[in-house]
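ingest -> validate -> predict -> emit
validate: passed (alphabet ok, no gaps, 163 aa)
predict: started
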Amino acid sequence: HWYYPTIREMTARPDFRLDCDWIADQLHPKIKPGEVERAIEVLLRLGYIVDSDGKVERGEPTLTTGHEVNSLAIVNYHHQMIDLGKESIESIERQWRDISALTMCVRPDQIPVLKERIHAFRETLMQLTDTVEEPETVYQLNMQLFPLNQTGEIEPSPGDTEK
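emit:
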């Protein structure tokens, strides 16, 4: 669920409280306190958050799916985050979000370089944010790179020939 990593990141806030009602109220969009409780149990069991002398905090500061993960759970997570990004256009004031797009024409041999630059950018942002003290707000950054037309170099996936 989208809120698992969000709750994990919230533990870095100086005002974080291990209170399911408080956490549920902080999230946008709202979820039920029971969903928070289950998320906390899973995050603790997996070591993504730890109980350190009665204070819950992040385990390792950086948590990433890597660059090319295809598990169903990660696919569903990305679907949820893309949907939340769409909703943010209407629900979040402009000064608190950035929605932008870039449409460009490239050669197929440029794709590995573009992906490498995107990966490096993500690594830079993680290094920048993981070292900040007393963070306040959990943000989601979605980056998308995909073809908008068919070429001889891009083979359709099985079952996608009608799309």
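The beta strands are 49-52, 55-58.
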